[in-house]
Amino acid sequence: MRATLSYLPLVLLAVAWEAIARLNLVDSSALPPLSKVGLAWVDLIRGGELVNNGAASLYRGSVGLLLAVLGGGGLGLCMARWRLLDVFVNPLVELFYPLPKSALIPVTVLWLGFGDGSKILLIFLGCMIPVTIGAYNGARGSDHALVWSARSMGANRLRMMWDVVVPSALPELLNGIRTALALAFILLVSSELIVSQQGFGYLIGYLGSTGSYEGMYAVVLTVAFLGFAADRIYQLFIQWLLRWRD
Amino acid sequence: MVAAMARLDDTASLAAAEAQISRDAARRLDIAFRGGAGIFSILVLLIAWEIFARSGKVTAFMLPPFSAVAERIYADAIGGELWRNLWVTMFRAITGFAIAAVGGIALGAVMARSRIVRWFFDPIISVGFPMPKIAFLPIIILWLGLYDVSKISIVVFDAIFPVVTATLAGLAGVEKELIWSGRNMGASERELMWQVALPAALPQILTGLQVALPIALIVAIIAEMAMGGYGLGGAMMSASRFADSRGVFAGIVEIAIVGYALIKAMALIRRRLLVWHQETAERH
Amino acid sequence: MRGKIIATGIALLALAVGWSNIGARAEPLKIRGAWVAPLANLSSVWLQKKDLAVHFGQSYVFEPVRYAGTPPMITAIANNELEIGNLAFSTLPIAIENAGMDDIRVISDDFQDGVLGYVSNDFQVLTDGPIKKIEDLKGKVVATNSAGAGVDVAMRAMLRKHGLEANRDYTIIEAPFPGMKSMLMEKKVDLIPAVLPFMLDPELKKNAHSLFDMKAAIGRSQFVMWSARKPFIDAHRAALVDFLEDSLRILHWYLDPKNHEAAAEIASQLTKQPPERFGWIFTKDDYYRDSNLMPDLDALQKNVDMTRDLGFARASFDVKAHSDLSLIQEAAKRLK
């Protein structure tokens, strides 16, 4: 009951949308009624366009993000452990951290073309840095006493990394991954919007350019919902992963 | 440093001051070492780029040498094109960011005070924050056309969420005693907000702004790439259409420098604004 | 750091690509061909008549791919995502001179513009809009399908003749051809390129009219031609000749007046519009196509030189040296 009440404003917005469109307060092509958007969504699912393009997008997004988590997490942990690596790589991380990642879109296309490869590379490059920083800060903050005691107990480096450093770096690492998750959606959709022949972004642009605005709204709302859902699911995952902390 | 100098009068703490100075010196040496290593790393990267590009393993279309890219940036700077594009992109990103900052703080403050406003916006913010709002770009184009208004609007739309959430969190974290004592001293609600609550929430608000700024830049460049016209993003796209790889890479370098400068400037502003705050004091 | 990542990424991808290729060893050659506008580009209606293609599935398979314009094809060719690009007269020099792909060869005609008695691409404004002459475009937004494309370069050339420079005097934005009509009708832009089949849209015809056409802008042009890279041609010559032979068969079928109704029916299915609208296809109301798919290299040379003179390509080159018409000639010979 409380949950319904707290989400009531969203329902109100939806009703207002429908009413504004039905009463023709604005041009119906600029704002088609929500009910028609819903019908267009069903059509897109039936026709397979949404499923096919969505599958392409989700594949690119998940592979890119996975590589970023592995690469960035590994790099961050190593930088925190080995000072020399830290001294020489940190400046590069700092240099690329503020780079607006969208600037990489034309370059990844230049290297790998219009298919999956360029999107995966873009998401990998764009999402790696926040993960690296999360892992680095987390591991640096890890309790030195823990590390020493583990070392005195004869744990080797790799073992110690896994048993001591990774768990204590986890909260910040997971936060970095959350930033990366949001960034992955942004980069995925925008690169597909600008340079692609498949995917959610492509479908949005294509439907928009052919004047199928109901369909365009349907895909936009789908992407927005997926971004929201991914974040919520990830947060639940974090809670489950960090349950030992409380 | 200043603190150390001030203490010199006090002969009793002379020894402590000396220790402080030597610690400062050691830290400065460390900073110098790190700075040197940083420049070294960046140089290595640039040289590696140059050598790899000239090795014949890649074509100049895939990766033009850094020297050619630098030459191109220089030529664009002399020709004035660079400044025109830079100005337009900055105008869009900063205007959007400023509107998002003012609007976001205002909305956060109102939400913190009014239960109804909060009830209405809470779900919208919490659902809207993690959404990839860039997907709405074609809809914004549909509504507002292709000029600056739509480009700035999408920047605001994307950058406002972290500001609102940070303001809310910051205001929620202000200690109750601070508010009570302010109220006891006869401050009005408006004075409480402006003189007690907002300054106390400032560190978190600034964090929100620091999250919003890179978002504003990313989105401004995407909007330019998608809509064309002037601007660093538009220039990159147009260069890529004409298979002008130097132009594409020049764009990356220019955008990287701009991003770096803006984000460093923001960090500097933060330190200035929070001179009084514990967080800054710890660094001195 | 970045170099390594890129190298690793490329290596990973190369591995993935290599993987997918292993299984395909014994299969017929896969030829991907680009198209931009439905019906206008032969590739877009090729598969609909693949029943005529005797070698299809034997020595090769053909896979048409839609692009928003010809410039992205350059990147696609460079990345082995596309075998036959239908490059325009402007994107050929951009690919050869700017991108340095010196091994690109013109292998056949797709269609030509400005040939007497045939249709020329049009540039249109709203009939009751503010633009009465080209000079009125100062400070306005004009649409293009893709910067550097054939229609784009022709449009810039025409505006330059009237003292207007892109980005200085007017803004260019990109939109795919199917979306041009709504861009103009919703007044988001003031000038659109109207190409076939979109220029015949009834709503557009009612509300818009021509400001100038491409013939007036640049004269006769070898507008688009099929182009492939030399190593690919050398490696798969026999299969390519088979492909061109089948393409000629298909083109001849479309050009044959007695197939006109069936062709209109295909166009109708493709564009989801009534067949009555397609009286024009493959007639004199369509673009000019050489019935032997032979490109007009003299016209092309002039177009390429002009593209350089306008500053869009770094240099010009000998078009004949960058053509290999022996394949299409051999294919034509087989049909006799």
Percent in strands of chain C: 15-25%
Shape category of chain A:
elongated
Q: What name is given to the CATH topology of the largest domain in chain A?
A: MetI-like fold
In CATH, the architecture of the largest domain in chain A is: Orthogonal Bundle
CATH class of the largest domain in chain A equals Mainly Alpha
Low-pLDDT runs of 5+ residues of chain C are none
Helix content of chain A: over 70%
Structural class of chain C: alpha/beta
List keywords for this structure.
heterotrimer, A: 246 residues, mainly alpha, MetI-like fold, 0% strand, B: 284 residues, 12 helices, disordered N terminus
Describe the structure.
The complex is a heterotrimer of chains A (246), B (284) and C (336). Chain A is mainly alpha-helical and 246 residues long. Chain A folds into 2 domains: 1-31, no CATH class; 38-245, MetI-like fold. Helices cover 82% and strands 0% of the residues of chain A. In chain A, helix 2 (34-47) crosses helix 10 (213-241). The radius of gyration of chain A is 22 Å and the shape is elongated. Chain B is mostly helical. Chain B folds into 2 domains: 2-54; 66-281, Orthogonal Bundle (MetI-like fold). Chain B is 81% helix and 0% strand. Chain B has helices spanning 2-6, 14-54, 66-79, 81-113, 115-128, 137-144, 148-172, 176-184, 189-227, 232-241, 245-273, 278-281. Chain B is flat, with a radius of gyration of 24 Å. Chain C is α/β, with parallel strands linked by helices. Chain C has 2 domains: 24-115 and 221-335, 3-Layer(aba) Sandwich (D-Maltodextrin-Binding Protein, domain 2); 122-218, Periplasmic binding protein-like II (D-Maltodextrin-Binding Protein, domain 2, 3-Layer(aba) Sandwich), CATH 3.40.190.10. Chain C is built from 13 helices and 10 strands. Chain C has a 3-stranded antiparallel β-sheet. In chain C, strands 8-5-9 form a 3-stranded antiparallel β-sheet. The mean pLDDT of chain C is 89. Chains in contact: A-B, A-C, B-C. At the A-B interface, helix 1, helix 4, helix 5, helix 8 and helix 9 of A face helix 2, helix 5, helix 6, helix 9 and helix 10 of B.
